[in-house]
Each structure stands twice: as C-alpha cells, then as structure tokens.
Amino acid sequence: MSTEKTTDLTKGRPISQIFLFAVPLVLGTLFQQLYSFADTVIVGRFLGVDALAAVGTTYSLNFLILGFVQGLTVGFGILLAQSFGAKDRNELNSYFLNGAFLSACISVLLAVVTAIAARPLLILIRTPENILSMAVEYIRVIFIGIPAAMLYNYSAGALRAVGDSRHPFYFLLFSSALNIVLDYVFIVPFGAGVAGAAWATVISQLVSGVLNAWWLLARTGVICLSGRRASSEDASKEGAGTADGSFMPASTLSAEKMKKLCIIGLPMGFEYSVSAIGAVVMQGAINSLGSVAVAAQTAGEKIRQMFTLPMESVGMAMATYVGQNYGAGRIDRIRQGIKSGLCIQYIYCAVIWCVIFALKTPLVGLVLGETTSQIAGEAVQYLSIMSASSSSTAPS
C-alpha cells in the first residue's frame, strides 16, 4: 500500500489550501482543453473545413449530455467529501459503492438513448445538410462512450473528494498525450475520419478513468468495500476513519444512500445541462448560417474553452473544500473559503483575458491554417466577444 497521503482541507489557511488543491485541477483542465484543441487542429488540417464544422456543430449537444455527467459526479463527490471530512470511513465506503452503481446505470441508459437520438437531435438544431452525416458519425461515437466519460469523472471526483487532486492530473496528462497520438493515427494513417477523432477521445477517457479507479482502490487505502478490521496503518492515514481497530462492515447497495446521492447529484447534473440549453439554441442559430459560420465558431470556441474552462476547476476544488469542512462542522472555514475562491477566480479571469486578447489572431490561424479570410475574421470576432463575456461572468 502506498504511503501517499490524502489532503485534509479542514486544516490550514483556506486560500493557500484551496489554491494548492486547485492548481492540479486547473492544469488538468488546461491539458484536457489542449488535446481538444489539438483534436481541432488535426481535424481542420487533415480533414478540411467541413469536417471541422461537423465536429463543431456537435459541441452544444456534447455539452448538454456530458455536462450532465460532469455535474452529476461532482454532486456525488460532495457526499464523499463530507464523509471524509467527518472521518466516517464506513459512510465513505458506502457512498462510493452506491455512487458507482448509480453512475454505471445512468451512463448505460444515457449511452443507448443518445446514440439512437443523435441524428434527430442534430436535425433539430438545423445542422447543415452537407455536414450532417459527418456530425452524426462523430457524436454517435462520443455518446456510445458515455460510460467511459462517467468512469473518468466519477473516479476523478472520488479522488478529489478525499483530497487527492494530483493523481487525476497525472493520469489526465497521460491520457491527453495518448489522445493526441490516437487522433493522428486514426485520422491520417488509418483514414477513420471524424469517427477516428471521436474514438481517440473515448479511448483516452477510458484509460484515464481506469487509472484513477486503480489508484483510488489499490493504492490510497481510503476505500475498502469488503468487510475487515481496520489496521493501524489505516488509522495512521489522514481521514482514514476509525482508529480503534473496530470492524468495518462490507459496503452494500442502499436505497437510502442512493436517494441522498440523487438529491444532490441530479440537480447539479441538470444545472450543468440547463446552462447548455442556451448553447443548443445558439448552435441552432449558427447552423442556419451555413458551414462557413459553423467552422468559424468552432475555431473560436475551441480556443476560448482552452483558456476559460479551467475556471470551472476552481469550482470543483471549492466543492471538495466545502464538503470536507461541512462534514467536519467547520462552517467558519467555509465562509473564509468562499471569499478566497472568488479572489482566485477573478485574478485568473483578468490574466487570461489579456492573454486571449493578445494572441487571438495567431491562435485562430493555428487552428484554421490556410483558409479564407472570411472564416478567420469571423472566428477572431467570435473569440473577442465570447472571451470578454466569459471573463466577466466567472463561475463561483
């Protein structure tokens, strides 16, 4: 068993604890967006503008469904963090098992329904006819891979809940590099087209999810699903649970635990999805302008996401911080932590807006390569407006 320790966020100065915990999350999201950006570059350069537009037109649906997955698992992680903060090992194990069961069931259901509904949904948002087939091909693979996305998000969220934000970052870094390699291999030598880009994403998420789950279950010693007596090594771990050698019963499926998980997880999942409805409506309006406008929006949006989505990582760090301190009964630290989190958010937004403003034109050129000035000009215009709006409405 590893001697790596999890982090107890109920101790220490709030702003430094939140910052240090959030740094791997922010870097992880940056690398995640980097491979998404690289995916866009490879598709745009090797498959052309229509293929780039086809991938881009699926973004709002991707955000709608996978945003729900992300929000759901963040919600599940709150109860895990509360149990860890309260140093209740049995509750932690029970919530983990029941959360894993719910995640598996929901992900399979979502995968089946969305894969079947992919074409009607794309038609509903007025996807241009010349890119419809490619868009369906791409998003259907992404939807089939929802269980892999769920595994990644749930396992990473569980690790964060017990105070480990570093290993999800390490594994995401590895899977990001793998995604870029697979993108090139599937698209160029294998000629798999946009479906190849989608499979590269799904496989990379699966690998990262498996690595997270392996580390959590086999190396941290925090989760134990089988009944046994707590050892002195367990007791010496921060937040490990009972320190008196008492028997830890085997975790079982519990309707009560699932209900509590759903009460917190489902609203957060729907909150993420509701915010995506605006993106779906906007995507329908952009699609009506034709594939040139879609390609420009895709280039601009990918660049914006690469810089602005890491702001959400601070929110994830806050969810763990608040969860642990709520479980420990440290309400005073929660108030301090919220102020510290807002401070970090606004500083990040100010810096990133300056970076985007200075580099927007060369970044658009990197994505689109040698293409029409109309597409490049519209992409720069879209990026200018959207980056300013995103930076002025930082999530807290």
Describe this structure in words.
Helix 1 packs parallel to helix 7, helix 4 runs antiparallel to helix 6 and helix 6 (146-161) runs parallel beside helix 8 (193-219). The protein is mainly alpha-helical and 396 residues long. The protein has a domain at 15-289. The chain is built from 14 helices and 2 strands; from the N terminus they run H-H-H-H-H-H-H-H-E-H-E-H-H-H-H-H. It has helices at residues 14-46, 49-57, 59-85, 89-124, 129-144, 146-161, 166-187, 193-219, 232-236, 255-287, 291-308, 310-327, 331-368, 373-392; strands at residues 228-229, 247-248. It starts with 13 loop residues before the first helix and ends with a helix. Residues 229-246 and 391-396 have low confidence and may be disordered. A two-stranded antiparallel sheet has the order 1-2.
Instruction: Report the count of strand segments.
Output: 2
What is the average per-residue confidence, as pLDDT, rounded to a whole number?
82
For the largest beta-sheet, the strand count, sense and barrel status come to: 2 strands, antiparallel
Residue share in helix: over 70%
Shape: globular
Low-confidence region ranges: 229-246, 391-396
The amount of beta strand, in percent, is under 5%
Order of helices and strands: HHHHHHHHEHEHHHHH
Distance between the terminal alpha carbons, to the nearest Å? 37 Å
Total number of helical segments?
14
Structural class: mainly alpha
Cα-based radius of gyration, to the nearest Å: 21 Å
- Order of strands side by side in the largest beta sheet? 1-2
